[in-house]
Amino acid sequence: MGVKQALKSLDAFPRAEEHLLQKTQSGALVVSIVGLVIMAALFFHELTYYLTTYTVHQMSVDLKRGETLPIHINMTFPSLPCDVLSVDAIDMSGKHEVDLDTNIWKLRLNSLGQIVGTEYLSDLVEKEHAAHKHDDEKEHHDDSDKKLHALGFDQEAENMIKKVKQALANGEGCRVYGVLDVQRVAGNFHISVHGLNIYVAQMIFGGATHVNVSHMIHDLSFGPKYPGLHNPLDGTVRILHDTSGTFKYYIKIVPTEYRYISKEVLPTNQFSVSEYFSPMHEFDRTWPAVYFLYDLSPITVTIKEERRSFLHFITRLCAVLGGTFALTGMLDRWMFRLIEGLTKPSHKGVLR
Hints:
Its main location: membrane. The protein has 352 residues and is α+β, with helices and mostly antiparallel strands.
């Protein structure tokens, strides 16, 4: 008999207690319904948690060689016409390019920031258009022509100077956008009026202190975007009032690989930045510009999308649902005993 009693004590499914076999209004409404709602909510929460991917970051030495670095630019210069803007690039290898015309476009903007026309240009030196001269300005233009001829400018330079002055008077701006493909070494690129002849620039602006390089950076990136990427210069606005100077953005580029859950690999770059502004003084020999000085990190960051295992999902689900069921059972027991304790004395009083 001792062995038989010992085996019975090991029974994992003993006979249910009396209170669990009695159907009560409190147990049905309060415990059962609330318990089912809680378990359903927790089930959908766990399912969403399982289906959502998460990212894992890994670092390694950058081994890439001989590749180019794409620089995506989208900027607006509200106070400079398109005719005077140019993009120059130089890198540590000594390669220096002036007035880059590869995959770079610009749009003329009026004083309200609206595009003037629908013409897309394939370089940063806008083609000359036929000037529409008004009768009441003819005398003024004739005087300007005499002054420019006296300074030794040819007809093309004279036309450009008059055109830019008219654009400045009308409050024209320029939107520069496109992609620069540079060598994968440290360097810089800048947007400025450096493409102009210094005497032409002097005739247009009357000095470096009158060049307003106010700008808005809509997008500046070094590769395609991936989920969660934040480019710190996007949305940057720098407006100058009654002053001029040079903006310098010091950029540290981190090569990055983003690996999707589908095993697709997206090579790109993320970066950090700090900036510095140098005001222009009357006797400075340099001209204002917006510089982007970049350097590359020797470390590559690999970001991988991963999903939690199905076994992990089942384990969490059983733990959550089982715990909720056990808790509702405890609540039902306490409520049953409470109600039983409150109703038993009344039954005894009736019998007496």
